[in-house]
Amino acid sequence: MNKELFEKGLEVRRSVVGETYVEASLKNADEFSMPMQELVTEFCWGEVWSRPGLDRRSRSILNLGMIAALNRPEEFAVHVRGAINNDVTKEEIRECLLQIAVYVGMPAGLGSFKIARQVFKEMGI
């Protein structure tokens, strides 16, 4: 593990998806799953999310589409929160979800709206 990238990734990950989520993910990791937490923190957050080519807002918008297309509802909820943290508005998220429905399919769009509404409710938005 590259400790420098891990620390950088930890900072970005906390900023985007929140301290509570990240700490719970690390705390709940065991000997079996900790290497995955290290990999995602180092590679995804430290290496890719830290690159200068796209801002975090743009990366959040991309993630909404990709994660919805992959039908990963738990991760989708995390990234709706991340998008809000990265200054994507509720209205912009709605437009992303309409785009998802057209290109990925109505079930993905409907499911994404349901998840986003729940996240907005939890966040008081």
From TrEMBL:
One of its GO terms (molecular function) is peroxiredoxin activity. Pfam families: CMD (PF02627). It comes from the Bacteria. This is 4-carboxymuconolactone decarboxylase. Coiled coil: none annotated. SUPFAM superfamilies: AhpD-like. Residues 36-117 form the Carboxymuconolactone decarboxylase-like domain.
